[in-house]
Automatic annotation (TrEMBL):
<dbReference type="InterPro" id="IPR000719">
    <property type="entry name" value="Prot_kinase_dom"/>
</dbReference>
<dbReference type="InterPro" id="IPR004147">
    <property type="entry name" value="ABC1_dom"/>
</dbReference>
<keyword id="KW-0418">Kinase</keyword>
<dbReference type="GO" id="GO:0004672">
    <property type="term" value="F:protein kinase activity"/>
</dbReference>
<protein>
    <submittedName>
        <fullName>AarF/ABC1/UbiB kinase family protein</fullName>
    </submittedName>
</protein>
<dbReference type="Pfam" id="PF03109">
    <property type="entry name" value="ABC1"/>
</dbReference>
<dbReference type="GO" id="GO:0005524">
    <property type="term" value="F:ATP binding"/>
</dbReference>
<dbReference type="InterPro" id="IPR034646">
    <property type="entry name" value="ADCK3_dom"/>
</dbReference>
<dbReference type="InterPro" id="IPR011009">
    <property type="entry name" value="Kinase-like_dom_sf"/>
</dbReference>
<comment type="similarity">
    <text>Belongs to the protein kinase superfamily. ADCK protein kinase family.</text>
</comment>
<dbReference type="InterPro" id="IPR051409">
    <property type="entry name" value="Atypical_kinase_ADCK"/>
</dbReference>
<feature type="domain" description="Protein kinase">
    <location>
        <begin position="120"/>
        <end position="451"/>
    </location>
</feature>
<keyword id="KW-0067">ATP-binding</keyword>
<keyword id="KW-0547">Nucleotide-binding</keyword>
<keyword id="KW-0808">Transferase</keyword>
């Protein structure tokens, strides 16, 4: 039945492409297109165009193709694009503008599936009488995610709700996309310097089943909503109903972070950045969970001044909070205590047994990352993130060798990615925030005198 449904052209509309061969061909066109344009660029260099002109031209065309292919495919391809988008602040300015535009669009836009498709999925998940649960239902989606789209509706009790409906065939498409993207991971690496693409894809693949079952997301969201009930800075919408492929939650209206990044005033950007950082650091302590999809499309500035948070499909479970050793390492790096830092890194599994890494080299690698905590306030900028990305991504530099020699234990993988992603969003916001006070309050181990 499922295959028959998705193979009918009259009902598929512009929804998620299902045929594996077609999806593979589209994904393959990305790195091949980028490589082809690079070869063409050398030709234009020979005819007199400057490196900057060629680079800007290649970036603009590659970015447009990236959006077209990843946005149309949705599934794992779009999820990968959304994940990459938080790191655009690390791309050098002369290359960033086209990527910034294309990747930002990926955070909130994709071709919708037809009304007929969404109705069929709603009937399958909520029963044939699904319409009786709503007094109003807008067939035109208000937003698109990587594996589903959101409709605005009114629940039978009068509450405004958001109805997330999974794209038919999203499971097969997601698995296919991630397999193909992993094949091309080295070529995609060039798009975002300093970002490890291969582990990022491996992590997306490992968490795939959780994201495909919206009941997991509903459980996560209920836990977050309970933990932040009555919070003065953060609002989590309550879950109204859930099924494996349909999720109904309270509706939230607000200003998307992408709009604030593009044109918000300094006070607004600083306030949103502060709330975002506090949400990230306080969640493990308050909820035993960490929101693990920190791209701007998942956050809104509400009319009452709070930060609205959505999309809890990707969540790390931290029942004991963030490991205290992480706070200890951060503090030791900040204080320049290289020998003690090296000892704690070895104890925590970040340095492999028998490694010939020197403590002073490891401190030189990690120390600059703690710069936001050196003073009461820190101004997160694209320039600062670009410097960090270039420092650790320069294959000729000592930091590249140290970074490749350090080990990232599995229990720290998601924490590391969320911290890096949240930092990327702060740099996009160009926010100045009291980072040290937030970390001192919420990061176990950081403020301990005897580390």
């Amino acid at each position: 039945m499922t295959t028959d449904f998705h193979d009918r052209d009259d009902e598929s509309g512009p929804g998620i492409p299902r045929r594996t061969a077609a999806r593979t061909a589209k994904l393959a066109s990305l790195p091949l297109g980028i490589a082809g344009r690079a070869v063409g660029g050398w030709g234009r260099r020979l005819t007199g165009q400057s490196a900057e002109e060629v680079s800007a031209n290649l970036s603009a065309k590659a970015a447009e193709q990236l959006f077209e292919v990843l946005g149309t495919l949705k599934g794992g391809a779009m999820k990968f694009g959304q994940t990459l988008s938080v790191f655009e602040a690390a791309v050098p300015d002369e290359m960033a503008a086209p990527y910034r535009d294309a990747l930002t669009r990926l955070q909130a836009a994709a071709p919708p599936m037809s009304a007929k498709q969404s109705h069929r999925m709603l009937a399958e998940q909520l029963g044939r009488g699904w319409r009786d649960r709503f007094t109003e239902f807008d067939d035109d989606p208000t937003a698109a995610a990587s594996i589903g789209q959101v409709h605005r509706a009114v629940w039978h009790d009068g509450r405004e709700v958001a109805v997330k409906v999974q794209y038919p065939g999203a499971d097969l498409a997601l698995r296919s996309d991630l397999r193909q993207l992993q094949r091309f991971s080295r070529l995609f690496q060039a798009l975002v310097p300093g970002t490890e693409v291969k582990p990022l894809l491996a992590e997306l693949s490992a968490r795939m089943d959780e994201e495909l079952d919206y009941r997991h997301e509903a459980d996560n969201q209920r836990a977050f909503a309970a933990a932040f009930e009555g919070d003065e800075r953060v609002r989590i919408p309550h879950v109204v109903a859930s099924a494996p492929k349909v999720l109904v939650t309270e509706w939230m209206s607000g200003t998307p972070l992408a709009k604030i990044i593009a044109g918000g005033d300094k006070a607004t950007r600083d306030s949103v950045g502060t709330m975002l950082a506090e949400f990230h650091y306080s969640s493990p302590a308050k909820a035993g969970l960490l929101h693990s999809d920190p791209h701007p499309g998942n956050f809104l500035l509400l009319e009452d001044g709070r930060l609205g948070v959505i999309d809890f499909g990707a969540v790390a479970k931290l029942p004991h909070g963030i490991p205290p050793n992480l706070g200890g390492m951060t503090r030791l790096a900040l204080d320049g205590r290289s020998a003690e830092l090296m000892e704690l890194l070895r104890k925590s599994g970040f340095v492999r047994p028998g490694s010939d890494l020197r403590a002073e080299d490891v401190l030189a690698y990690l120390g600059p990352f703690t710069e936001p905590l050196a003073n009461e306030r820190f101004h997160f900028t694209r320039k600062w993130m670009q410097q960090q990305a270039m420092r650790v991504g320069d294959t000729r530099g000592p930091d590249f060798r140290v970074g490749r020699s350090l080990n990232l234990p599995p229990e720290y993988l998601l924490i590391h990615r969320v911290t890096a992603g949240s930092t990327g969003v702060l740099c996009q916001l160009d926010a100045e925030i009291p980072a040290r006070a937030i970390v001192e309050r919420w990061q176990p181990g950081f403020a301990d005198e005897a580390i």
